């Protein structure tokens, strides 16, 4: 591919309110599951960087945490991760839901977007939930707020119109050589992906009030012959939460482990022996030390662009 001078290569950030479908869309665009998904808001905490390469060039996607009103230091970190990408990338894809009502959360994002000169593609997601003739109404409402480079209605869940979105993205990328090898899918460390897969299964299994208060630490990850031995700890904020995560007779923790192990085995393409523990770290989401320890380092927000 390096022999082709017409290649395009650049960085694209996916932003939007929590639970608007950013991770689902990114996974579909790169045709692999890297970012975790659930029906709980604020599922994504770190900026997930993934890579898509084809004959047109290379797109480096950044799936950011949902922009929301922060209630603790973890929330501040998540919002900063999302906002800081706006001026560092070549294209911004702003995901919204199909509605004519623009709420306070969207208004806040609009104010952030007004400060950037980066081309903005409005992506109206979840169009499979509304009538086709209504989509023009949603487009008209948003076009009055910002001057968008493009407006693309999609269904991230069903993959509707995602090819058109990819074509629009390439239109606004600069010409240049790829940043990564063409077989690269993500720059995420394997340990981090494994931790996120475990957290996803916990998010999907636990009650509403618990997921925001958990983190996952990989204590060890070693290959022994044809088996990968993984030991991980689920961190929660209260003793009462610990009991719920473990469940009666350890049933909940076992269920989380079984579901996570299946995905990890599919990703690693080998047998996995997964051992899970649960620990309480009170108010860890407001501790600078613990946030860094669990992989949420405010100083580590710059793009991983290779030197020219």
Notes on the structure:
The protein is an alpha/beta fold and 308 residues long. The protein has two domains: 8-171, P-loop containing nucleotide triphosphate hydrolases (Rossmann fold); 190-293, GMP Synthetase, Chain A, domain 3 (2-Layer Sandwich), CATH 3.30.300. It is built from nine helices and nine strands. The protein has a six-stranded mixed β-sheet, with helices on both faces. A three-stranded mixed β-sheet has the order 7-8-9. A hairpin with a 2-residue loop joins β7 and β8. The two termini are 18 Å apart. The model is unreliable at 35-46 and 298-308 (pLDDT under 50).
Features of this protein?
globular, 3-stranded mixed beta sheet, disordered C terminus, 6-stranded mixed beta sheet, 22% strand, 9 helices, 308 residues, Rossmann fold, GMP Synthetase, Chain A, domain 3, alpha/beta
Instruction: Give me the side-by-side strand order of the main sheet.
Output: 2-3-1-4-5-6
Helix- and strand-based class? alpha/beta
CATH topology of the largest domain: Rossmann fold
CA-atom Rg in angstroms = 20 Å
What helical percentage do the residues reach? Answer: 25-40%
Mean pLDDT: 80
Strand content: 15-25%
Assembly status = single chain
CATH top level of the largest domain is: Alpha Beta
How many E strands?
Answer: 9
């Amino acid at each position: 591919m390096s022999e082709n001078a017409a290649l395009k290569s650049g960085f694209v950030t996916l932003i939007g309110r929590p639970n608007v479908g950013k991770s689902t869309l990114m996974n579909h665009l790169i045709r692999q599951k890297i970012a975790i998904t659930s029906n709980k808001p604020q599922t994504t905490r770190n900026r997930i960087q993934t890579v898509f390469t084809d004959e047109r060039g290379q797109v480096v996607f950044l799936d950011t945490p949902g922009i929301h009103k922060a209630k603790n230091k973890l929330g501040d970190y998540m919002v900063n991760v999302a906002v800081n990408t706006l001026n560092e990338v070549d294209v911004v894809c702003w995901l919204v839901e199909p509605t004519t009502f623009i709420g306070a959360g969207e208004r806040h994002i609009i104010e952030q977007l007004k400060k950037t000169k980066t081309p903005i593609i409005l992506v109206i997601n979840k169009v499979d939930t509304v009538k086709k003739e209504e989509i023009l109404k949603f487009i008209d409402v948003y076009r009055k707020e910002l001057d968008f480079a493009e407006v693309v209605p999609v269904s991230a869940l069903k993959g509707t119109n995602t090819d058109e979105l990819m074509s629009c993205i390439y239109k606004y990328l600069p010409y240049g050589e790829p940043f990564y090898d063409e077989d690269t899918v993500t720059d995420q460390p394997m340990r981090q992906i494994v931790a996120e897969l475990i957290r996803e299964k916990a998010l999907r299994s636990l009650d509403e009030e618990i997921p925001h208060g958990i983190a996952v630490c990989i204590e060890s990850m070693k290959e022994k012959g044809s088996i990968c031995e993984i030991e991980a700890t689920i961190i929660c904020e209260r003793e009462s939460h610990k009991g719920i995560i473990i469940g009666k007779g350890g049933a909940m923790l076992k269920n989380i482990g079984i579901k996570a192990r299946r995905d990890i085995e599919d990703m690693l393409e080998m047998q996995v022996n997964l051992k899970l523990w649960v620990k309480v770290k009170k108010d860890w989401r407001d501790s600078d030390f613990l946030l860094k320890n669990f992989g949420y380092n405010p100083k580590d927000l710059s793009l991983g662009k290779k030197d020219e």
